[in-house]
Structure formats: structure tokens, C-alpha cells
Amino acid sequence: MSLLDEVQGPVLVHGITGRAGRRFAPHMRAYGTDVVGGVAPGHGGETVDGLPVFDTVERAVDATGARVVVAMLPPARAAAGLLECAYAGVRVAVCVTEGIGQHDLLLALQVAADHGMRIVGPNTAGLLVPGRVTLGFLPTDFAEPGRCALLSRSGTLSYEVAYECARTGIGLSAWIGVGGDGLKGAAFADLFPELVAHDGTGALVLVGEIGTRDEEDVAPLVARSAVPVVALIAGRSAPRGVAMGHAGAFVGGPGGGSWESKVDTLRAAGATVVTSPRAAADAVRDALAGTAA
Hints:
Layout: H1 3-6, E1 11-14, H2 19-31, E2 35-39, E3 47-48, E4 51-54, H3 57-64, E5 68-71, H4 75-87, E6 92-95, H5 102-114, E7 118-120, E8 126-129, E9 133-136, E10 145-152, H6 155-167, E11 172-177, H7 188-197, E12 203-209, H8 214-224, E13 229-234, H9 259-268, E14 272-274, H10 277-292
Parallel strand pairs: 1-2, 1-5, 2-4, 5-6, 6-7, 10-11, 10-12, 12-13, 13-14
Antiparallel strand pairs: 3-4, 8-9, 8-11
Helix pairs in contact: 4-5, 6-10, 7-8, 8-9
């Protein structure tokens, strides 16, 4: 089953009694996400927004049948929370936490892979299938269903692209933030095939930034894609050796990662490279008009 189909099943919120959990669990439910409960050690038997709270993920999974988790946990507990999800049989975990220790996260990613659990994040704003489901806190007020998929490392820059698309009359088929960290679960290359194959996708926007090899690694898939791709890459003027905002937005070693490397590679793969959110929306409009012709 594809990720975008799987996330439309029952959902648990790990950390539901925390500030983020209490704020965004009701938001996700109001949008139509099938949130069926939450997890918070020591709070079993309580309720949040009418949802049952369980002491462990295992108990929550057994009671609700949910296999999708949104992890809204503090950094010191997030890796252990992901491990708990993997051992409990969770299929998809969306982790919004920023600042998880790298050694702990590396173990969690390995155990998740061994147990067949896909991780979106950490340090992601989440994912959204407009009109169907939202996991995390991507803005839903201006994202209407449509034909453009949005795949991004940057949360706020993708907000601007989505907003400009909405102003241009372009809706979204799906929107996924992979997170801005260098060490993470699903990368561009993992999610690109599912987004281009998703129902109704007629164009795709990649919102990238300096650091890591996400953009370089997805380029071969872009080159083979029948779906037009528009790319917006942040960090053109960033100095080498300085982390810019995200932990992954760092240009320091060999093997790619620079703005020039990403732009040149994606352009060579056939992507339309633009320099602003407004230009991205215009390029998507033109691409969709071309595919409809």
C-alpha cells in the first residue's frame, strides 16, 4: 500500500497530552483525519478532546487498530518514542520533533527499517492530502485539492509555494515535508515515485535547499518522470561551512550539497528551476496547461 493511502487509516498522536499534541490533535480531527487516540506514559485512562489516552503505543495499537502515528514528542523522548512505535507494529510514523540526538535517531531509523515502519521526518511539518487527511501542522486553510504535488525539505518555504499556487488557482494532490535535518527517514527519492503516481498528480514541485544530497539523489527519477517537475532551491548566497537554519542546510564537504550542484543537476534532469515561490506557481500553471493540451 502506498504511503498516501496508508495514512488515511486510523491515527494515534504520541505525546497527545503535551502542548503540541493538545493543540494539533483537535486540528487534525476537525480536518477529517481519523484520529482515534493518543499515547502519553502515566496518562492512561485520561482523554484529550474526547480521545482515549493510553500509557503505551502497544496498548493503543491493540485497542484501536491504528498503524499510523504522529509523534509530537520532546527531543529527549522522540527517538525512544519512534522505537516504541516500530516494536508495536506501526506502519507509518510522522515525527515533527526537531533536535533529536543523532546517535539515538540513527538507532531508531535502523530499527524502523528492520520492522517495516516508514518515518516521515523528523523536523517535518507533516503531510497533507487536501480534502482527506492532515498529519502534523501544515496549513490547511488555503490548500485545496488539485493536480500539483509538493515535496519539500523546508516547511515555511513550502507554505509560500502552496500559497502562491492557491493564488494562481492551482490545487494540490498531496503535500509532504521530509524535514530539514540531514539524518531523517524518507528522503526525496523515496517519496517522489509515490507522489507522481498519486491520483490526479499532473505536476510536482520540489522545494529544496543547500546541504545533503536529496536533490542530487532524486534527479535520476526526475529525468525518467513523465510528470513535469519544478524545482525551487534555497541557499544561493549561503556561506560554506555554516549551518543555515536547518541542521541539514550545510555546505561543507565533497559530494554535492551546494546550491550550484543542486540547480545544475536538476536542470540537467529536465526540471524547470525557478528562484521564487511565485515563479514556481507560474511554472506549475504552464506545465499543467501543457499536459492538458
